[in-house]
Specification:
Elements lengths: L6 H30 L4 H31 L5 H24 L24
Helix pairs in contact: 1-2, 2-3
Length: 124
């Protein structure tokens, strides 16, 4: 269980994720395209998020270590700084994803059929 608390092993794992997550996202995106024969805007955005997860995680890991190394693990201040940082980043990323994933008309999707007029009798 040494790998759980050894900083060098965890850093190596996060370095591996920098390579693995974009490669896995590219492979997944390719498979998605081959099976569905198209990629919606939503799917493209989600595959980009998967690809960016590893590098973003590595950056957050280093930022966490800088904060903890400066103030130490035995104080509350770095905990609150990290908490505020992760909340703010989570809100920003969530809002960006919400904007990017907002439903809108897409060129590859057919237009919905027009609604029936209210005065017309139902068809038999």
């Amino acid at each position: 269980m040494k790998w759980l608390y050894d900083e060098q092993i965890v850093s190596t794992l996060f370095l591996a994720l920098i390579v693995v997550t974009p490669a896995a996202a590219a492979l997944g995106c390719l498979m998605h395209y081959l099976l569905a024969r198209r990629l919606s805007r939503r799917a493209r955005v989600l595959w980009v998020v998967v690809a960016a997860a590893g590098p973003f995680n590595y950056c957050l890991w280093h930022l966490y270590n800088v904060i903890e190394d400066h103030w130490g693990l035995d104080r509350v201040k770095p905990l609150l700084i990290n908490l505020a940082l992760f909340i703010v980043l989570g809100l920003i990323i969530g809002l960006l994803l919400r904007l990017l994933l907002r439903r809108g008309p897409e060129a590859s999707e057919p237009a919905p059929p027009p609604a029936a007029a209210e005065n017309e009798p139902p068809s038999p």
